[in-house]
């Protein structure tokens, strides 16, 4: 049983769920008395199961590589048979789709679209450079869209803000994914063809920097449109500074750039979470 829990990677699942919860908290302006708990809990369950299914499928497909590079994972260690892992992944995907049927149509469509993207990524696009980065960036950013749509019936005004978060998260994640590929370029040789391998480290670095710049340029929009006040602007400017530093450090240390981009994303989430207070 412990092997199946390992396949889920619960920490990753909970991080994905946090996007839904954060979006719901933004919608209710941190007022828990106004929280529509049932759709939020159901949406969180869907995200947890879907993310766990994707992690399990990834371990199944990478089982031969993991025997060398990640021998501690449950399939290489023999804790879970590979066929059982595939079945487990399918069951989790199926249950997540069924559970989404109790949410609104928008949530159902997001789950179905993301299922198609997830399968396309795992079976085809993982080793195809930029297309794989784009898919991962969408899957990550769409968690906020899914969280917003889960509470849309009660808080329809959340849509405009969620769309901004979606775009910002997409570009920030895309820049970070490319940075990680630059960092891992030596280990990826012979395994997959990433963007840095296709166009070179320098040009791939420029693409990552452009993504970070787009996230920075678009970040003041909630303040400009009057959605949030000056507190949001102060915090998001701090996030922007970290994004700029990430881009500046990319050539010297892709790993540092990736870590800084992750930190900037966390600070930006704080800005969105607290932005409505003042």
Q: What tags apply to this protein structure?
A:
79% helix, globular, 278 residues, 2 domains
CATH class of the largest domain: Mainly Alpha
Return the average pLDDT rounded to an integer.
88
Kindly report how far apart the N and C termini lie. 48 Å
Number of domains: 2
The named CATH superfamily of the largest domain: UbiA prenyltransferase
Classification by helices and strands? mainly alpha
Q: H/E element string?
A: HHHHHHHHHHHHHHH
Notes on the protein architecture:
The chain has 278 residues and is an all-alpha fold. It folds into two domains: 1-155, Tetracycline Repressor, domain 2, CATH 1.10.357; 157-278, Four Helix Bundle (Hemerythrin (Met), subunit A) (Up-down Bundle), CATH 1.20.120. The protein is 79% helix and 0% strand. Helix 3 packs antiparallel against helix 8. The mean pLDDT is 88.
Q: What topology emerges from the helices and strands here?
A:
Elements: H1 2-8, H2 10-27, H3 37-61, H4 63-69, H5 74-77, H6 82-100, H7 105-125, H8 130-150, H9 158-183, H10 185-188, H11 195-199, H12 201-218, H13 221-224, H14 230-249, H15 254-274
Q: Would you kindly provide a brief summary of this structure?
A:
Helix 2 (about 10-25) crosses helix 8.
């Amino acid at each position: 049983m412990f092997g199946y829990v390992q396949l889920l990677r619960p920490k990753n699942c909970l991080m994905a769920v946090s996007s839904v919860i954060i979006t719901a908290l933004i919608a209710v302006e941190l007022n828990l008395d106004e929280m529509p708990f049932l759709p939020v809990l159901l949406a969180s369950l869907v995200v947890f199961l879907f993310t766990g299914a994707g992690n399990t499928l990834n371990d199944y497909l990478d089982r031969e590589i993991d025997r060398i590079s990640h021998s501690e994972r449950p399939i290489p260690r023999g804790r879970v048979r590979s066929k059982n892992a595939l079945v487990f992944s399918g069951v989790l995907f199926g249950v997540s789709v069924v559970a989404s049927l109790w949410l609104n149509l928008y949530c159902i469509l997001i789950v179905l679209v993301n299922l198609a993207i997830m399968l396309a990524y795992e079976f085809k696009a993982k080793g195809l450079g930029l297309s794989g980065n784009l898919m991962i960036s969408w899957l990550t950013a769409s968690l906020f869209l899914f969280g917003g749509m889960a509470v849309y019936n009660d808080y329809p005004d959340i849509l405009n803000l969620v769309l901004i978060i979606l775009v910002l998260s997409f570009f920030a994640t895309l820049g970070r994914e490319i940075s990680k590929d630059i960092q891992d370029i030596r280990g990826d040789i012979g395994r997959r063809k990433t963007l840095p391998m296709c166009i070179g480290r320098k040009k791939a670095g420029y693409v990552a920097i452009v993504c970070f710049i787009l996230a920075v340029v678009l970040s003041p929009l909630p303040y400009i449109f009057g959605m949030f006040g000056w507190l949001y602007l102060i915090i998001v400017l701090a996030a922007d500074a970290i994004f700029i530093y990430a881009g500046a450090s990319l050539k010297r240390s892709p790993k540092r750039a990736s870590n800084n981009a992750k930190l900037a994303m966390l600070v930006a989430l704080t800005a969105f979470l607290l932005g409505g207070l003042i």
